[in-house]
Design a protein that fits this description.
The longest helix is centred in the last third of the chain and has 21 residues. With 426 residues, the chain is α/β, with parallel strands linked by helices. It has 16 helices and 19 strands.
């Protein structure tokens, strides 16, 4: 898997050489998050928080709902980690604090087992990433300035029971685009079983392939921002084509944003390249032995939201928005004739009624005052309902009118679900 990085300092997206020298600066973090999310989870790093010089949390919060993000920088407590997860972070990265134990004298480092246990309890092992950044074989902390005396491999083994993933940065090469040192990574891969994310100096597709062949993911920064590498090529080259049909075809499942499986097919390098280029899901047609974009003749295209590889990187999941029926039979899905009636689908119908009113549409006649009046009326009727059938009927009315109000206010179903998810994780 490819993990593009968004490093933030002083309210700007930056790329630093060796964690210090400013090489470039941008201010389009939300645009970057949307684009990066098509290829993989996005690493969002608060450099100011990591250095103890402030926080960019308010700038980061919107990114956690735009993209699937893993967040790092200055996270020292389980409470901070849990708050970030509640805000939408998929994973949380901790570094220096994992190697400082309470009461230890200055300059004395050890794996902070009690903190790791608390972190695991707060957010779960699979959400916790520990950065085992090393210079040579020695763990370094405090923005890579402080050597700890801790051995990389022994430390990784001690941390693994509490973390679902390790972030291994080749500190000597970070930001230099001189290539990653693969030997320490090979040793680390043999030492632990958990997922490893490699960073630092990666600048060629050959390196991406070698890292992927080790079963590791790749985090990209400088090479990506300077154009040395592009996400389409790195995504394609990180996949396990050797396990595909004739080492050239991988299965791809297409799913709607609300979780319904629509179809399956096969893709190759050309089809994946065209998928990212066109923004619509493309396949390799085995019967015709050529590239095929779904909907190229009917207009029922599948607009790409994001692509994800499975754990073995030999199968793909495409999240996409269909422009019409997906199956050649005219059915909405190849696995069923009708689209499941979800809350998201209800809002889609309501929005369509407002944008394209048809004669006799009740929804199109509803203004703000009418909707609010109906919500109060239906809420009261839900409270007065006694029989099961009455509760179902009245609750359906209340949900409908509430969704109309949301749509008029520009609030999406996903935003409401995100808020409920945030409360659940508090």
């Amino acid at each position: 898997m490819i993990i593009p990085s968004i490093d933030i300092q002083n309210g700007k997206v930056v790329q630093l050489k060796q964690g210090e020298e400013l090489i470039l600066q941008r201010d389009n973090e939300q645009e970057l998050a949307r684009e990066f999310d098509r290829y993989g989870e996005v690493a969002v790093i608060d450099l100011d928080a990591a250095m103890g010089k402030g926080s960019n949390l308010e700038m980061i919060k919107p990114l956690l709902r735009i993209a699937e993000c893993r967040v790092g920088g200055g996270i020292k407590t389980p409470q901070q980690a849990k708050e970030l997860v509640s805000l939408g972070a998929r994973k949380v990265i901790i570094g220096s604090c994992a190697f400082r134990t309470p009461g230890a004298p200055p300059g004395k480092f050890a794996v902070n087992i009690s903190l790791l246990e608390e972190m695991e309890k707060a957010i779960g092992r699979q959400r916790l990433i520990v950065a085992v950044d090393a210079r040579g074989s020695e763990i370094v902390v405090d923005g890579w300035k402080t050597p700890t005396g801790l051995d990389l491999l022994e430390t990784a083994k001690a941390v693994e029971p509490y973390a679902g993933e390790l972030l291994s940065t080749c500190v000597e090469r970070e930001g230099t685009m001189t290539g990653i040192d693969l030997e320490p990574l090979r040793k680390l891969r043999k030492a632990v079983d958990c997922q490893i994310l490699a960073a630092g100096g990666v600048c060629t597709l050959d390196e991406v392939e070698q890292i992927a062949a080790l079963g590791c993911d790749v985090q990209l920064g400088m090479a990506l921002y300077t154009g040395k590498l592009n996400l389409t090529d790195t995504f394609i080259n990180s996949l396990n084509w050797k396990k595909g049909i004739n080492e050239s075809l991988l299965p791809i499942i297409v799913q709607s944003s609300d979780g319904q499986v629509m179809m399956t097919g096969y893709t190759d390098r050309e089809a994946l390249g065209e998928t990212f280029k066109r923004g619509n899901v493309c396949f390799h047609s085995r019967t015709r032995d050529k590239l095929w974009m779904k909907g190229e003749s009917s207009g029922n295209v599948l607009k790409l939201v994001r692509l994800r590889a499975d754990c073995d990187r030999d199968a793909l999941l495409a999240i996409a928005e269909p422009a019409g029926p997906v199956c050649h039979t005219g059915a909405w899905s190849c696995f069923g004739t009708n689209r499941n009636y979800t809350w998201e689908y209800l809002q889609k119908i309501i929005n369509d009624r407002f944008k394209n009113p048809v004669p006799g549409s009740y929804t199109a006649t509803l203004d703000d005052a009418m909707v609010r009046e109906k919500i109060m009326e239906e809420a009261n009727e839900v409270c007065e309902a006694v029989k099961r059938e009455e509760v179902i009927w009245e609750a359906a009315d209340l949900l409908y009118f509430s969704t109309v109000l949301m749509s008029r206010a520009g609030v999406t179903v996903q935003e409401v679900l995100d808020e409920l998810d945030r409360r659940r994780k508090k």
